[in-house]
From TrEMBL:
It comes from the Bacteria. Residues 1-10 have a biased composition (Basic and acidic residues). It holds the Pfam family Flavin_Reduct. SUPFAM superfamilies: FMN-binding split barrel. SMART domains: Flavin_Reduct. Gene3D superfamilies: Electron Transport, Fmn-binding Protein, Chain A. This is Flavin reductase like domain-containing protein. Residues 23-170 form the Flavin reductase like domain. It comes from Terrabacter carboxydivorans. Residues 1-20 are annotated as: Disordered.
Amino acid sequence: MTIHTEHPFDTPDEDRDPVRRLRGRVGGTVSLWTSGQGIERAGLTVSSYLVATGDPGRVVGLLHAESDLLDRLEESGTAVVALLGARDQRLADAFAGTMPAPGGPFRLTDWEQTAWGPRATSTTSWMGVRLDPTSRHDVGWSVLVEATVEHAEVGVDDAPLVHRRGRYQRPAG
């Protein structure tokens, strides 16, 4: 048996899309977007998003065009955007669809239903947002959405979950 330092079936860097490779180097904190309620709830791990301060604050995100989350967000008009910590890596992988979650990813932790959608009780920094229905734009392989921040809570931020170049990273200092 041979132990590889890289995945043996990965496409070599020189054969990958350069824009996608550059985007991977940007990196960012990992968030979990959730919407809906009961059996009609959906979620998606998102690291391509931007929060703009102002009165009111705004959030812009790039969501997978075929995700259940995008459908639910457009139906309900609201969502929870929660920042994930290093302890939430399994949750992030399940909602990204990269790790199996028997019974669905909502079974992996406890949830509370808010006015904007379900929130994992383990998350301490989160926003309740309302979708701007005219903001949907197809951008590359994603859909850009914009929402108004109606509620924000800021909690302990001891070990944020950061994603860069296809891997989770521990931020320095």
